[in-house]
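Exercise: predict the fold of this chain.
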Amino acid sequence: MQKAVEPLSEHIPLEEVKIEEIDSLDPPEGWSPESPGVEPVPPPILIEEEGRFSLLINHDSFWRARAAGMLSIRAMVVRNPIHVPIAHKSVKNSLEEALLFDGLLRMSIVPNRSRLAELLNFSRARITQVLNVLKLPLQIRRELLITENISEFHLRPLIKMDDEKRQLASFRKLIADGLTGRQMALFAASGEEPVEEAQTDLERIMSEPVLVTPEPPSGEAPRKPVSAMETPPEDEEVAAPASAPEADPAAGEHAAKKTQGQQEKTRQPRSAQRADSGKEDTPPSTAERALFMRAKGLLDILGTLRDKGWEEKAARNGATREELVFLEGVSLLRRGLYERAAETLINASHLSRDNAAVFFFLGRSYNLMEKLSNAEEYLRMACEHVPDDPDILSELAIVLEKQKRYTEASSFYRRASALRNPSQPRSRRQ
């Protein structure tokens, strides 16, 4: 009879490590070993360097052991790439994730950011975004170690500030008022107090004008409008395109078919649906972009969707039944339930046939399940609806690269990079 497969983590032995040999950040003011902790107590996760150990994850466990006068503690020491996904699952907050990535790269357990991204099914830009958290002042970093509800996205505006006093003041505001990522960005940009919530967050976002990319002349790639919704990553490793990317043949074929259908007025399912529902017959590009921006606004407000209560918050912000199905799919995806996420998102795609965000997260689900042909299909559908979103283009590039279609992948990477860095000079098209 076949034996049941045990979790890989059970085969990694914990090592007995002396407390005095472990280097760590000190706990912030207000932390107390008397405060309630997590049960069972998770083991600290360490990395060895120069005969000593650096604490990466589960600082609270280590601080409590040290405060109790223990001489040693059983801990997991990350020694090779096999340990990386297991260690990452233990991450409690955004700073511990950054410490883990930094330690792995510093000690060459993982050779570079690209390999680390591959191990965790991240993009390389995402790795850089996480590492940027280490740029924050020490006081903020220490407090982040006991804070689990602040994501890297919330911290991006603080990272860009060059005034440490303002960083601390903004961090206090973030903690006290529970600002969303978008509110934090607006607050940081204005330097003023956030306005009172006369509208819901989503209503404010949706009251902003939808920026539509005008149709470019024949043979020229579309230019991306600058929108307050965008949060481009600060990825110093992503090179700006030396020359304008070649048009993707498949994408061009999609665009040609779409244009031909519009001219002949034989391809009208979306406008027909709007007419049946009594809605104004808005041009598809405007309507599709509005759906996509609304989905991004909801995700910005709701955060990770991993905790309970997001459904009520979504409803308070006016989420429709179709949007709640979509958000449930994203929630399942972010909890690692990829197959259930794909099933739910397929249902969402039947309810909202023009929403590029649904197709994007469907593509991501199939990518994480290594069903690459399905992933490519849905990501290309997302591109057809919103052709100038760098996240969609990057995800499609990753899928193509996994299929060893390097030329196509490179084209999409260049396009995504150009959209994230619109100020970079572009060579004249031939």
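Check your answer against the key: The longest strand covers residues 52-57.
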